[in-house]
Amino acid sequence: MFDLLIKGGTLPDGTVSDIAIAGDRIAATGRVEAGAKEVIDATGDLVSPPFVDPHFHMDATLSYGIPRVNASGTLLEGIALWGELRAIATVEEMVARALTYCDWAASMGLLAIRSHVDTTPDHLRGVESLLEVKKKVAPYIDLQLVAFPQDGLYRTKTGRENLIRALGRGVDVVGGIPHFERTMEEGRESVADLARIAAERGLMLDLHCDETDDPMSRHVETLAREVTRHGLKGRAAGSHLTSMHSMDNYYVSKLLPLMAESGMAAIPNPLINITLQGRHDTYPKRRGLTRVKEMQAHGITVGWGQDCVMDPWYSLGTADMLDVAFMGLHVTQMTHPDEMARCFDMVTNANARIMGLQGYGLKKGDVASLVILDAASPTEALRLRAARLAVIAKGKVIARSARGDARLSLPGRPETLRRRH
């Protein structure tokens, strides 16, 4: 007698399988004849591992309009606006907003999130807030925190000291923003410093890297070198990498093999990258998304990130990683069926590898976290941004949604409409 049995679901690879759950683990797959306390019929529906977001800013989420909106829509005004907000935001406010976002995430089957948390201010209220949130959501969301000196490691007197303090309090990952240091040289030094800190402490490294339209912002080259030097393969990522959109093709032909050799990953954030980049252009206007297909062709792990939801940088968002992948496949022109399937994999398996999640998947013995979608395949899930019929987190059903059907009143046509095809 299992605790939960999901019957007849279609897995992302097209396999039809039952999934039996005992406690917080998958106990059996394939054809399961035993009974269960609860049975969910998933016949014809897609059963997937949960969605994973490797790049988010939970300390700022759901703060849109406080204390004002980003009038220019630029990255720099967003950073300045966040500087105003973090000075007045209380721990209680940040916790409340973050928990609300986690409710949204849970309802959308987003059960693992890596959030950067600003370590610039000496008060470290953001760190205090998200460490509390991490404990509260641990039964259903794996929340990984990055010590992120938003104003730069060296721009402020206590920037480096505060990052070390945050790591000492239990923050998981070393972060940075080299292109926002005062000079290119200080940016290069910060990459080397941060990689050394990660290596010495046995931590992962995730840098906001070259989030700019400037093709001469090339800190990703330094990052690849330092990842190789310190043996951080599989533990390091460069986020955004938007300057690669504008780089000379010959230089990129040298850069991509260096990145591949290092074993670093890349995390573009399509919704936000195409919104913030190119703001100084007239026409043609750059959209600023990094070279996703080219990196994948070199064997580099690339995952889509959400980045922002209703905050100083972005006024929209619903915690739906299918929205992220949907936008990403359009901007990168990844419209071949194999490429679209890969976009789905980027918000599940690829992102899980980037975060180093253990027990992630749909095999016997894996953590029993999964989502049942109102779609027959990953490609259809992307097309429809499919309803999450059920979300299971560590063996417990935590959310249910109705199918996305409509009722019609049209002569000679069906009474109900389902957009699956």
Automatic annotation (TrEMBL):
Protein name: Amidohydrolase family protein
NCBIfam families membership: PRK07572.1
Every Amidohydrolase domain range: 38-398
Organism: Albidovulum salinarum
Family annotation (InterPro entries): Amidohydro_3, Metal-dep_hydrolase_composite, Metal_Hydrolase, Metallo-hydrolase_Enzymes
SUPFAM superfamilies attached to this UniProt entry: Composite domain of metallo-dependent hydrolases (SSF51338), Metallo-dependent hydrolases (SSF51556)
One Pfam family per UniProt: Amidohydro_3
